[in-house]
Amino acid sequence: MTNNGRKTGLGSTRRGVILGAATAAALTAFSQFGVGKAHADDANTTGLAVTADTVKVGILHSVTGTMAISETGSVQAEKLAIEQINAMGGVLGRKIEFVQEDGASDWPTFAEKAKKLLVQDKVAAVFGCWTSASRKAVLPVFEQYNGMLYYPTFYEGLEESPNVIYTGQEATQQILAGIDWVVKEKGAKSFYLLGSDYIWPRTSNKIARKHIEKLGLKVVGEEYYPLGHTQFNSVINKIKLKKPDVIYAIVVGGSNVAFYKQLKAAGIDMTKEKPLLLTISVTEDEILGIGGENIAGAYATMKYFQSLDNDNNKAFVEAFKAKYGDDIVIGDVTQAAYLGPWLWKAAVEKAGSFDIDKIKAASPGIELTTAPEGYVKIHENHHLWSKTRVGHAKADGQYEVVYETKDLMEPNPFPEGYQ
Amino acid sequence: MFADYTWSELGSIFAMQGFAGLILFSVFVLMALGLAIIFGQMGVINMAHGEFMILGAYVTYLCSHIVENYVPSLFGIYFFGAMILAFCASAALGALVEWALIRHLYKRPLDTLLATWGLSLMLQQAYRSIFGAREVGVTLPDWLLGSVSLTDTIEVPINGLFVMALTLVIAVAVYFLMFRSKMGMQTRAVVQNRVMAGAVGINTERVDRKTFALGCGIAGIAGSAFTMIGSTGPTAGQLYIVDTFLIVVFGGAASLLGTIASSFAISQAQSTMEFFLSGSMAKVLTLLTVVGILMLRPEGLFSLKIRR
């Protein structure tokens, strides 16, 4: 990890920034001159950190602070993808070098580090961010300095930036097919919506509620608890009395563990599916903390599960375990983070250049047939077409895939009629 | 607000909510007792209280791992051993911290806030480096999971009953230790008048260290017990710290009885409101009420009457 950002006093004075940038540019130009200028210039006309043999990218996640628990998997996946790409000969004949910065679970730090990566390191792309709050914090930086961000997390939608490729699902991709499935296959008629109190669960439940009501079914309760809430006995009592067919839970973080442990302790046996529990916030990663025996029997809608049975995924899981140990688990977001470097590579090769504007233009329509989740494609709106899958949680902490949509779901970050 | 329910449902609502409230009460008492001793008796604003709890949780995690792999026959009862070890580990760390950090700050109580906050950050990062950033799952013996069902709708979680029993035991033990033992008498003497206590031959430094260690040890037990109902991760301690201070301050910092009374008031208010309103709203109203009462009674519910 480099720490030069602070030394040059980023954001101190305007002159300081320009001076720093000029020095960096001069250095880059000098090194290019030494190695072989003509070769580098074809693929890079905007002063990115690209030499004849290397290209620099950034990884920007929290490895300290609250969010480290979630973002660790993404960092691992991105490093694995970069390593594999390098082993295959790199991008346009150049090895990828990465600069890793720590967002420290603090949104202004994310913005500062993003600026450092773009202005000082001149990285050709950044793989990073996890929470929507961190993405919102870095978005103006990426738009101002014209950088490229590959964002891995499933999120609430309502955003579309030319400078971001969203490799996770926006809300409708995760929600609609899951509810359709539980209605059709399980005959669900009534739902209890539950979530942590911030934008993602609230927006997602809004979409879920509209969809449930469109199907002519009933929402018998909707509730939010502060992040970090650890006592769920009251709401569990309420659920017992309202007797919904489905508990639709979007609880996150430490609350998640408390919620499932207390649900089980209160005698709600999820394997009996009365009520059935459907979640969009528990991946294999979260189950590690919750404990498989506490959540066995629940259903989750995601686009990726570690247990997916296809050759791409088998190779991916094997490589991941070879690098990080046999005990490691891979969740939905980890897989989406893994796609980032590959999608960027495909875009660079299609454009024949590392230039940000050319990558922006080349990205829509890019296909990846080697993705662990299967075939994916970048939509005009910079989100991915991908399938929705339903997994059934088992006591060993893995999901068994019980359903997947036939076609790829179209990403629709601004769903009409759902807002 | 009652219109949606029938009479029999209302009956079970009150029964179940009663239990939910009692369990919350026990949880609150358990997490606040340690702080009540440290903050209330010694005047140290211990922001690292949550991290001492999580140390207990990690000790429990290690025990569950070791017992499961090497002596599976004892798995059913390992939890008791784990709690004792959790107490020892947290108390030992507490004694070390008191020696290295806190004892230099007794004359500057507000600085303890900053010092212990720094300590909490250091401990969090230490947990992260040792145990990894991800939450760990603590495997529990089967008899601690599940529930006792009294009727069709009334079910009482066993781990809730366990926490209640544990709280009772700890509360009684603390009472005897503080009010019926020589150590308690010395502690109270030092709290009330440090100079005089020293003059009559009490080794005040040793008493301070023991008291601080005791508070931390109780936090460790609480953390160990909470592996049944909550998460175990590097930053999980932060989930408890606000509630803990709220309870101790509201109860009147210097009074252990006040801590118990305020746990009862806050837990009942919160669980009742959570049932009839939404979760976030219940929290807002609870906090507003507490702020309101503290404005009228800044010393909290109970205060010691001492001549100053």
From TrEMBL, chain A:
Keyword Signal in record: yes
Name used for this protein in its record: Urea ABC transporter substrate-binding protein
Pfam families documented for this protein: Peripla_BP_5 (PF13433)
N-terminal signal peptide: 1-40
Keywords, comma-separated and alphabetical: Signal
PANTHER family listed in its UniProt record: ALIPHATIC AMIDASE EXPRESSION-REGULATING PROTEIN, PTHR47628
Residue spans crossing the bilayer: none
Automatic annotation (TrEMBL), chain B:
Membrane topology per record: Multi-pass membrane protein
Main localization category: membrane
Transmembrane regions: 20-40, 52-71, 77-101, 158-178, 212-233, 245-266, 275-296
Listed InterPro entries: ABC_transp_permease, ABC_UrtB_bac, BCAA_transport_permease
UniProt keyword Transmembrane helix present: yes
Record keywords, A-Z: Amino-acid transport, Cell membrane, Membrane, Transmembrane, Transmembrane helix, Transport
Pfam families referenced in this protein's UniProt entry, alphabetically: BPD_transp_2
Cellular location(s): Cell membrane
Family as reported in the entry's similarity comment: Belongs to the binding-protein-dependent transport system permease family. LivHM subfamily.
Official protein name in the record: Urea ABC transporter permease subunit UrtB
Organism the protein comes from: Roseibium litorale
Gene that this sequence comes from: urtB
